Backbone:
């Protein structure tokens, strides 16, 4: 008998917030356009098992390669006050698709914002909307930022989303978006089992929105 251990993973997700899942015009959900996962230090294929499990449970997750490959983001060598992060989908080589390919997903370049576009509370509200699964259910994955290690830092930067011509995303999302507000932070996360979407919305923890 063998024991599978997955020590560390990197993840990158693209969500559409404020999706009207209940058709009531007021209850916000987030819809996952793409979810990516991969291992650190060149061990990208460590994301294969969690990708399979997540897809079976209602969230389509793609194995990806990340740069930097051991952290959420890294300073640009020419300007240490500016940071970057990059995600590429990893299509594992097989007899049908041929050699491994890495279509671009998205790039981020950003710096610390002296005049933030949004408050931290805005981002707390965004990331804590229940997620719509592809099986008709929803799931709560609350993030808590009220710990001493949160180190919330407002950011401002450019987001590049790569469409099907050069990358992995739907054409409707492709583009380069300047002066976008962001937030870098550490958080404690919890994951709940899938549930009815109305129930998931009712059970959102107000403490996660603080």
Residues:
């Amino acid at each position: 008998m063998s024991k599978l251990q997955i020590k560390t993973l990197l993840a990158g997700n693209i969500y559409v917030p404020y999706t009207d899942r209940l058709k009531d015009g007021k209850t916000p959900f987030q819809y996952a356009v793409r979810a990516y996962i991969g291992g650190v230090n060149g061990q990208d294929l460590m994301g294969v098992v969690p990708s399979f499990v997540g897809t079976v449970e209602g969230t389509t997750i793609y194995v990806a390669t990340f740069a930097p490959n051991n952290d959420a983001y890294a300073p640009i060598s020419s300007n240490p006050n500016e940071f970057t992060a990059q995600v590429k989908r990893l299509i594992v080589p097989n007899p049908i698709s041929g050699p491994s390919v890495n279509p671009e997903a998205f790039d981020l370049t950003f710096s610390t914002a002296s005049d933030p576009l949004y408050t931290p509370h805005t981002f707390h509200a965004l990331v804590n909307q229940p997620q719509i699964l592809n099986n008709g259910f929803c799931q709560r994955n609350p993030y808590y930022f009220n710990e001493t290690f949160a180190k919330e830092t407002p950011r401002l930067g450019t987001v590049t989303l790569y469409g099907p011509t050069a990358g992995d995303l739907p054409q409707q999302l492709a583009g380069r978006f300047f002066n976008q507000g962001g937030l870098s932070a550490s958080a404690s996360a919890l994951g709940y089992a899938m549930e009815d979407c109305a129930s998931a919305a009712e059970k959102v923890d107000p403490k996660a929105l603080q």
User: Anything to note?
Assistant: The two ends are 45 Å apart (CA to CA). Residues 51 and 57 are 10 Å apart (CA to CA). The first helix runs from residue 48 to 56.
